[in-house]
Design a protein that fits this description.
disordered N terminus, 6-stranded mixed beta sheet, 16 strands, 724 residues, 5-stranded mixed beta sheet, alpha/beta, single chain, binds thymidine-5'-triphosphate, disordered C terminus
Length: 724
Amino acid sequence: MLWKELLEGKQRSERKKEEEEEEEEGEEMPVAKPVSSDGRVIAHIDMDCFYVQVEQRKHPELRGLPTAVVQYNSWKGGALIAVGYEARALGIKRSMRGEEAKAVCPQIHLVQVPVARGKADLNSYREAGSEVVSILARMGRCERASIDEVYLDLTDAAETMLSETPPESLEIIDDEALKSHILGLKHEDGSDMKENVKGWLRRSDADHREKLLACGVLIVADLRMQVLQETQFTCSAGISHNKMLSKLASAMNKPAQQTVVPCSSVQGLLESLPIKKMKQLGGKLGSSLQSDLEVNFVGDLLQFSEQKLQECYGINTGTWLWNIARGISGEEVEGRLLTKSHGSGKTFPGPRALKTLHSVQHWLNQLCEELSERLQTDLDQNRRIAHTLTLHARAYMSSDSDSHKKFPSKSCPLRYGTTKMQEDAMNLFQAGLREYLGPFEVKMQGNKKIGWGITGLSVSAGKISDIPSGTSSIMRYFQGHDRLCSPSKLAKEKFELEDPCSFSENESNSTLDIIEHTKLPEEEATVNNESSDLESMEHKTSTNSLEVPFYSSMSSLKKADFSQETPLSFSGRESHLEPKLTELQSKVSSKESTFEPGRPASEQQVKRNALRDKGTPSLLRFFRRVDPSCSIQSQVLAQSSDDTNIRSSLEKNNSIHGDSLSEDVQRREMWRYNVDEIDPSVIDELPSEIQEEVRAWLRPQKRQANSARRSVGIADYFSRNKKL
Ligand code: TTP
């Protein structure tokens, strides 16, 4: 098809442009961290097919059956976001949609992700992740790396065990520990693998570091059993002397297994590890190593001296490269059990793009309501306060020349209370929109009107900090916080201080122009439909968008406020302004979440002193006890007629608006599984290896250029066998 060819041509040239831009921008280069000389014991814990396990716990009748979780988006049965291991064995991949999965495996059970406020609701998964974290944190410093991944520093626990109950003194060792995969440990033909592992764990001639590692193996096996017994979830683990190696190892044997990297096996592991698979080498640095130094595997780096690597990549990065070639990494496990930010977002792909301020406000209200609830819970449970509200949006303009312009992210001090947040978010959106459209740029092109559409919206709360103990200080905090200028206050103050009549004619007219030319033919007609059946993708999100301090855009905001509620007939005179603003504000939900002083933080679980030396049932045996013969009452998805509706609406649009609009709509349609389905508010919860990748993608001005690579990358990631 011609439009496809045209698009591909355009993508090629955009890609080139993007590469040039990247050259200019530069990429964040990894730097070496000081390496402690003492042996550390670090574990990486990764839950197995996490959302599936959470759903199977809710619906035990699904245990043992091929199951997958699908997005809140019934188009072609919804995208699969988590696939159980039984389903994987039958050929189901994460890159499939529900319909395809049904075709490949008719007996598959597709469970829809929970929905709230017309969008995916991840709370049950977040809470399930927190249950696991609270168990793991009993034994050491714990860093929550994503919704289902945790790093643990078990050095102290291992030292304690080594001095009190060293493995070599144990008569009985947990079965789960004996099933560990010890990289490099040879199993002679006919030898008993568990006996071999037992021998390795109890070596009296091992050095201190390796003895600590053996203790780590026992501790992690025990922790995984505790997780299973208390939550019914299985997880896999990697155990080594640093985060980097543990992360690599945890994916090597899944599900419900653990893999150990002794020092002696590091070289073997890295020599066959493709360079791009290494954290921080997936981008330009990795490409440069491949093309400039012909390094294809991490082990290939061993041939270069530290000095040579420093000459090529600078002192810090050169040393970092030299270190990783030897499996050395000083990165610390951060003591962080809670998320760094909260976000709520939704995507509006293809024809579902929001095209009116009214519909944007509707969705911002929903997102802010969710965000406000989560902030309130964080405050109540953890006595934490967020300081910054940020609005991100992805947008397009129907004028081709502007289609790569990025919608600016906007931030302001966060005010607690749903209504305030909704009001502030809307004001931030308007400020962003004003800047996005440009004050005088929106013009008529012949007889064709230039429109805008919003394909993604998210609000996030960041700069989260603990509040000082004592209720009075919390109250003081809020009083002080509320006195800070909010966007709406600032906007109103501007209205009050500045006589709108003093606007020059040009300014008024330009505002009028924006309103007039940003309206699309269907404006206002889509709001109700949107709230009922919009697609929702709760993927992960970019927090690296440019945060523009709000105050810098006050003039834009003021104009945005005019533009929001100004009808086409607006004369630009002040008499319309206050009533319009009031009317706008009254449209915002009046529901205000109330602030209650935080409850005391939940108590830290008591650290266990010593490991049990008795055997425990293995993880797999745990599941053999589960009765698989229960009846199925799953939330199996009915295929919706959504697909047909979308297509017929597209066809209708095409016939009305001719080829160029048709291309435009189809082009956006084509991206529906890529950028448009990624919600930038939840990136911190993504599996860590793809957080970076997704962040890199989510640059709206580059999305065309990236689309081809993106789909390859993410599909690859999801579908590939994680085994190295
Ligand atoms: P993963 O850890 O990547 O995968 P998984 O836990 O489903 O399976 P595995 O055993 O191979 O580790 O992701 C954790 C959860 O995050 C996953 O269950 C669903 C969710 N998720 C999304 O919602 N969108 C995404 O794009 C990805 C990658 C994951």
